Amino acid sequence: MNTVTSSPAEDPVAPEVRDIGYGRMFADFYDRLFPPDGLPERTAAALARWQAGGRALELGVGTGRIAVPLARLTGEVVGVDSSPEMLELLRAAVEAAGVPVTAVHGDIRGYADGTGYGLVYSVCGTISLVLDPVEQRGVVARAARHLAPGGSLVVETHNPGAVHALHEGASRTSFFVPYPKPGTGLQTYSTLLPEQNLWHTSHLWHEDGRVRVGSEITRLTTPEDIDAHAADAGLVLVSRQGDWAGGPFLPEHSPVHISRYVRAADREERV
Ligand SMILES: C[S@@+](CC[C@H](N)C(=O)[O-])C[C@H]1O[C@@H](n2cnc3c(N)ncnc32)[C@H](O)[C@@H]1O
Asked: What is the pTM of this model?
């Protein structure tokens, strides 16, 4: 693992990187899935407001969709990802933008660099790609240990309530989202696996007569799941919203939940 710094006390042996293969399927068209609608800039602006100085750490940085605009606002971002394919695109984006983002090949289930950050964040459902709830809890615990005094942990993932509403009681559904550019669109086949609390999706990206396919399995992760992991890590909820414009979280409608936590001790100091 290529970490920025290491802490022998916390991590005597660098843990292996168990890449789930997300980048092998999605890297080729990942950035095409996000139309240039200002969402990354809005997301970065919200995160920047919550950053208590210092550097930021992104868990599951991908191609730098958020890390690059955030680095423009607040300076250095360290971005961890298990996918060499996504990191290759991140490095190219960082070079093109000339921003201070450090790409780290690592597994968020074992990542530790022994330093503190004014902001640790994991967005766009990355936490739900960790399927084992015990490992999810471990990710949040490690994230909490990386918070500098006054720092915030921010977690965004899909809202199970909205996923269930989309399925209208059926275990399988499919939908097509046309994109602004003629000849482009995203076709999705969605399957709920209730016994394991998992959600399987296969995405077909159509562009100029070509189709590319990416599949993923995520854990349906409620806001309460993240709250429980955070509480175990000594964190308390500061705010929850349903979009990056600050709209309220609506349990059956919001496509995502976005939660911000600080250390309980930091919260008490402010009260
Ligand atoms: C949905 S993408 C989100 C990327 C980026 N955060 C964004 O907002 O565009 C999820 C990313 O998490 C990474 N990932 C999934 N599991 C991981 C793990 N255990 N450790 C590190 N990265 C992981 C994937 O490789 C992928 O790049």
From this structure: 0.94
Instruction: Confirm or reject: Cβ of 83 under 6 Å from ligand 1.
Output: yes
Q: What whole-number distance in Å separates Cα of residue 103 and Cα of residue 68?
A: 11
Q: Is the CB of 65 under 6 A from ligand 1?
A: yes
* CA nearest neighbour of 239 among 258, 223, 221: 258
- Domain positions in the chain are 8-159+221-270, 162-217
28-78 pLDDT, tens digit each:
999 999 988 999 999 999 999 999 999 999 999 999 999 999 999 999 999
CATH architecture of 8-159+221-270: 3-Layer(aba) Sandwich (3.40)
In degrees rounded to 5, what are phi and psi of residue 124? 60, 30
**Ligand 1 centroid to residue 72 C-alpha, Å:** 21
Residue 129, ligand 1, Cβ within 6 A:
yes
> For residue 139, which atom of ligand 1 is closest to its CA?
19
CB 258 within 8 A of CB 156: yes
Summarised one tens digit per residue, pLDDT across range 111-150 is 999 999 999 999 999 999 999 999 999 999 999 999 999 9
Distance 183 CA to ligand 1 centre (A): 28
pLDDT score recorded for residue 267:
76
Distance, in Å, from the CA atom of 8 to the CA atom of 14, rounded to the nearest integer, reads 9
Does the CA dihedral 62-68-69-74 come out positive or negative? Answer: positive
Question: Phi and psi of 16, rounded to 5°?
Answer: -70, 160
